[in-house]
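Bug #2210: C-alpha cell dump truncated for PepSY domain-containing protein?
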Amino acid sequence: MTADEAEKIAKENFNITTINSVELRHLSDEELDDIPYEEAKDLTPVYFIIKGIDKNQEEIIVFVNSNEKRFNYINH
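Reproduced locally. Full output below:
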C-alpha cells in the first residue's frame, strides 16, 4: 500500500477533509493494544498514521494497516 492509498481510505471511510501529516511507522505498545480488530493484532504492526481534520472540523487520527487496507480505524 502507498501513502496515497492510505489517504484515500482516510477520506472515504472517515470523512477526513484536511490532511496535516502522514507517517508510516511501527505502532507503540499502547497503540497496538488499541487496535479494534483482534485478527489484526498478529499482523504487521506497521501502519500509516494520518492526522487531519474531519468534516465536523474535529481533529482525528486515522490508522491504516500498511499491508491490509481493510484494517483501518480512527482514534480521536
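Output looks complete on our side. The CA atoms of residues 24 and 48 lie 4 Å apart. Marking as cannot-reproduce; reopen if the truncation happens again.
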